[in-house]
Each structure stands twice: as structure tokens, then as C-alpha cells.
Amino acid sequence: MAGRKRIGFLVNHLGWEGHYTNRLWRSAVEICRRRGFDLLVFTGPQDVGDYLSFRVQSAVFRLIDERRLDGLVLNAGLCQFNGSEASSPYLQDFGGIPTVSIAATLAGVPSVLVDNVSGMRELVEHLIVDHGYRRQAFVCGPASAEDGLIRYNTWQQTLRAHGIEPDPDLVLQGDFIVVDGAERLAEAWRAGHRFDVVVVASDLMARHMIAVLREAGIRVPEDVAVVGFDDDPHNRYSDPPLTSVAQPIDAQVETAIDQLVSMWAGMTPAPVTTLPCTLQKRASCGCDRARWTVAAELRQQVIEAAGRGTPFVAAVRGMLGAEENAADRAFDIWSVIDSMAAEKHHALAHLTHGDLQVVRRELFSRVAREAHLQHVRAPTDPRSGWDAALDALRVASLSSLPDFMAQGLPRLGIEKYCLSVMPTLASSPLENGAERLTPLDVPAELETGPTGQTRFAAVATYPALNGHPDAGVFNASLIAPDAWFDRLDESALLVLPVASRSTWHGLLVVELHPGSEAMLVQLQAALALVCDREYDIARAIRKNLADWNRSFVLAEKTRTIGTLVRGVAHEINTPLGVSVTVASVVRSELDALEAKYHSNRLSRTHVLDFFAACREGLGQLERNLCRVAKLVETFKKVSITQFADQLVDCDLVDELAAVLQGFRAELGARFIKSAIDAVRPMWIRAQLPVIHEIVTDLIQNALDHAFPPGMQTEPRLVISAQLIDNNATAQIRVADNGTGIADELRGKVFDPFFTTQRMSGNVGLGLAIVNNLVADGLGGLVECQPNPGGGTVFEIRFPANRCANC
Prior knowledge:
Elements: E1 6-11, H1 20-35, E2 38-43, H2 51-57, E3 71-75, H3 77-80, H4 87-94, E4 99-102, E5 111-114, H5 116-130, E6 136-140, H6 146-161, E7 171-174, E8 179-180, H7 182-190, E9 197-200, H8 203-215, E10 225-227, E11 244-246, H9 249-264, E12 272-275, E13 278-280, H10 293-307, H11 312-320, H12 326-342, H13 353-370, H14 386-394, H15 401-408, E14 417-421, H16 423-426, H17 444-448, E15 455-462, E16 473-475, H18 482-486, E17 492-499, E18 504-511, H19 517-598, H20 604-637, E19 648-651, H21 652-661, H22 664-669, E20 673-677, E21 683-686, H23 688-705, E22 716-724, E23 729-736, H24 743-746, H25 766-778, E24 781-786, E25 792-799
Parallel strand pairs: 1-2, 1-3, 2-17, 3-4, 4-5, 5-12, 6-7, 6-9, 9-10, 20-22
Antiparallel strand pairs: 7-8, 11-13, 14-15, 14-18, 15-16, 17-18, 19-21, 22-23, 23-25, 24-25
Helix pairs in contact: 1-9, 5-6, 10-11, 10-12, 11-13, 12-13, 14-19, 19-20, 21-23, 23-25
């Protein structure tokens, strides 16, 4: 890929501020900007507990393609929620894209790990040696999480190294977010099954454990100590501040990108790179409060600032000062305010949500200035007109989305976005022709998610692509049109599936800034709601059209049956009437001959006259009865039940050539040139006898009507075939350069008993039979069109892989 390198960063979900996954991708945004790389963050569903949603929306990972990305960084969370081997199928799809894994080892992929063993060992030894905590409980991570398993095994080994046998009754399971059965552990402690400390495999579960213990009246750390792992930035400001093992988030991401750079240079990085962890001792384990007086002092300063008569934002601005570490201090101040607001601290009770958001914007603007990152915007307050915008979006139509997004998103700091949907949703269903709306089958992509062969259509973009030749339908694996990517400067983008719980509709690629993820997820959900509604409307239209079509077809069949019955009655009536008359004349002649015999008046002349009358009468009788039999046989062909309802795989070109070969003698005798215009092989699945009968009847129709004697031009008959609609539809064209069909008659050629040569013995059922066979035998359509060079073209279209139950 020419120009700037683009890195794909795969996470199971976006997480929230302080969450491990959230901190990873935020670090990737900052590092890629600093080092001059573009970034595409791919995420699965936010509701990881919903299996159906996870299965459908995680299909976004199947779209990753080397044409759009130069390197990939995988997060271990992909395995945690999808099984330990979950990434293996994805890796097969990634092809030759250089790939690095963070926090998980994958075969054949360089991995960046943290030293969970030394980190957990140091934490447990601190609890045993410095605090004397020998009765320890443990909360594990997900069974599929490699990190969680290492931490649990190290905890056991460290206890045994100090002569302590782990108590299996004090081991709980969690998912790195909440603890399963935390209340049972609290009840056990109150019932006398005492323990000194709860060692938890993640900070989020540790804070959940603290809340459960307090709810049960158990003090932390006075009664039970609690420690975590990861070192969420909010740990310093929780109550009590949480002791934890700090993972080197920035170093993990930086090392992963360094390894991609080395792979681009043709080098082979080490299979595993392990980074050290750091123990952060705070009050939750019982350490002296002097170790966290900075946080306590900062909380007190915030309380005092909130109690002054001056505006709170002015007081906070004064707390920042002008020292070099003002950016870090700004983040610390907001973390304290955020923590106090969550606790509903009485000192902030008089402040509104808007007051707090003004302070937040002020602090994050200072962070951007001090860090020389002016392009990082302050997180947008989701309630600053955003709720009203979402309400308007939820009732919008797909056609109004471009205007809504062009007007609303830039005001919220989002200036790069591309919304794409499946073409069947992007265009009005009525534009495709009623014949394409009859099937109600749901495309597979809607239920299982797109593949690299799925096509998308861009419906709303900024920078805009109006009128650009590459702004139309594109391959889904390209994520967005090339023309849109070409117009971007340096960018960090988020790739979100526009999908409801069970239905895919498209993709949203949008500018990503730390702090905007909650807003973007809301936007994703609102767009999915709009697309769901549009799809339901289109489906309802298709259903109504299908119902109308079925009613129309039934009425048309009833009319056709009436026409056929009247036509057959009319056509059969004449030869049968003649046959009855002839039979009556022969009987009269026989009666007269018999009377002469009995009266002895029979002569040789009488007998010869009788023979002559019988011979003529029987000849007429035979001719008329044969005509009736032919009419009945032709009428039987109107129904396709005489053909075996069996599908076969065949080369369509070979079959057309075989039918044409049967007419070579007659065509040659009339000096009519013929040809097959198609490329072999052309494999289809259909009822082969039906195809043979249709093409035979069309060739015979051309011989009967297209080439009268005395033509001035050289007669020519061409049969062509091709596969269209991505090989889903077979098309056969039988074209002649004969006399053609008048415009006023062309619409009647498929009517039963319509013929211009009845005096020549034609009944007018040939093309009616063709129409019936194409519709009922092949599930297709036949059209009669004028040939631009003179003559007539009969065009047949039918499914190339027709299922047995269609």
C-alpha cells in the first residue's frame, strides 16, 4: 500500500473509560498519530452476553483484507468471548497481512505479553509478607482467558511456596467485569468462614467485590482487604484506593507496532516479547494511608473548590496552575470529580450535569494543549443536543440520512465518516422491477454477516463523493470506497457493523476520538434501527407485490384456461363435425347398397360406386381425425407435467448445440446459416428436457414464420447464451434476421391460438407452450423483442442453479 501505512486494531468491544480494552485502543490512536500511521479499529458487538448478536456482528472481522491494511494487531479479548481458538479462523482469512497479538499467544503470530507471573507473585508475597494475609480468596477470569489462567495458577503456586494450601471453597469465577457468586463469598465470611483478603484477576471485578462486601456490612480494608490486577487509572481515586498490578498499556501497543514495522522491513520478530508489570500499593490492601495522601489532598481541594462562591470551572482552572505537569494534573482532577460524582458526594450536589461537563471540556482542552495534541478534541457531552439528534435520527428514513449526518455530525466534532449499506437496501425496491421482488428469500449476508464477496453501496460520506465515478457499489472487504480513503488526511477510524441483533445491513466507518465511543455506539444503534425499518418496509412491499402477483397470475391462468378451452373447442369442432358428416354419408351409402342387394337390383356399377364413395369418405375421416389427434397432442404440451421433474447439471452450450444439430439438414436445405454464440463450458442446473423443448419450438417457429421464399438478405439464425447477475441467471437468445413481427402483434405472440398463418394449418399454440415451459418448467421469463438488424429475438432468462423445491 503506497503512502502512509494503515494498521488494523481488532478488539472484541470498545469498553469504557478505564477498561483494559478501551485503554489499549486509545493508546493505539495516540501512538499511531505520533508515528504517522493511519488506524482502523474493528470492534464486535457491545453486548458480549448476547450470543446471537455476537455471532452476527462479529462478522465484521471477516472483511479484513490486505488491500486495505498493512498490518494487524489482535487483542486477547477476541478469544475471551469466543473461545480460546476463536482467532484461528480469522487468521486464515487475513492471508499474508503481518499480524501481532497482544496478551495472547497464537501459533505463528508474534505475541506481546505482560509478565503476569512476576506481577501476581509480587502482589501475593506482599500480602503474605507485609500484611500476614494467609487466608486468601481468589476471583478468576474467564476460562478462555490466557492471562486469567496464568494469574490463578501463579496465585496457587505462590501460596504453596509459603506453605499455604489454597482453599477451593474460596475460589470464584468471573468474566473480568463482574464476579459470579460474590454474595456467597460475603455470606461465607459472615457465617464464620473467614478470610483476610480477596485477590481478584481484574480491577473491574475487584471494585464489584468491594461493593458486594460493603453491602454485606464488611469493611474494606479493615475487615477484608481487596486487591486487583491491571491498574485502572481510576484506582487512585476509588474508595479506598485500589492496590493493583499495573500493566504497561502504552508499552504493549508500542511494542506491537514496533514488531509490525520490523516485519514490513523483512525481519522476523521474536515469537514472544514479555513486558514487566509494576505493583501499585494503595489503601485497599491495608497499606499506610500516607502512601495515597496525594489523592486524598486532591479530593479535599475539589471539595473546597465546589464550596466557594465563584463558578466551579473558574475554581478548577485555578487548581491547574501553570506547572509543567498541568496535563497530568488536569486528568487527575477530572478523575477525582468523576469518582465523586459517581458516589453522589454531597459537595457536588448543587452542581448540574451541564456544570460538570463544562469543567470536563476545560480540563481535556488543557490536556490537549499541554501534550501538543491540538487535533484531540474534548469529549463531546452526549446530552448537548445529542439526545434530540438521536431522537430525530431514529424516525428518519434512509434517504434522509445523508442530510442528517452532513448537518449533525460535524457539529459534534465528527468530520470523517462513510455509511454503506447493502445495495438491496440502498435503492428503492420498486426500481428493480416487479419480477425481482417476488422471492422473499433473505440474502444470507443479512443473517450471517457479509463476506469478502459481499457488495456495499456508500449512501452518506464526508468528505463527500457526490458525482465521483468510484462512489457507487464496492466490495465489502474494502471497508469504504477507494475515493473516500484517498480524500482523507491522517486518520484514526472506527469500523462499526450497522446491524441489529440478528440482521446485518452495512458498515459505518467513522472518525474516532477517545471519549466519543459512547456517542458512536449510540449512533451505530440508531442507524441500525433506521435500516431495520427500511428493510421491514421493503420486505412488506415485496410481500404485497408477491401477493398481488400471485392473485394476478391466478386470474391470468383462469382467463388462459377459458381461452384454451374455447380455442380447443373451436379448433376440434370443425374436423370432428366433418368426420361425423363423412361417417353419416358412408352409412347412407352402405344402407342403399344393402337395400339393392336384398331387392336383387345390385349391379357391378353400384358396387364400384360404393367403393369409390367409401374410399373418399374414409380418406376425409382419416385426415380430420389425425388433425384432432394432433390438436390434442399439442394441447397436452401446454402443461409441463409430461416432463420428468428432475434437475440435472449440464453444459448449456453443449445442449444448445445438440438441439441445433437436429435442424442442420433442414437449415442447409433452405440455405439458412446458423451459429452458436457462447463460451464453453457454461454449467447450469435445470430441467434439461424443458430446455430442449423450448429451443426446439423457437427454432421451428423461426423456420415456419421468419424466412419466407424470396428473401433479399441471407437468412441467418443465431443462438447465444451467457450467465448474468453474478452467474445466478442463465440467458438464452434465439435471434433471426427474418421478416420480423409487427409492433402491434408482438404483445400477442404468446397468447394461445394466436397465429397469422391459420390457413397454412398452424394452430397458434407453439409460443404459448414456450411461455408456459419457461415460466413453470424453468421458473423464468421469455420476451419477444425486435432484432436491431431486422428480424426477431426471443430472450429467455431463468435461474442457473434452480433448487429442487423451487
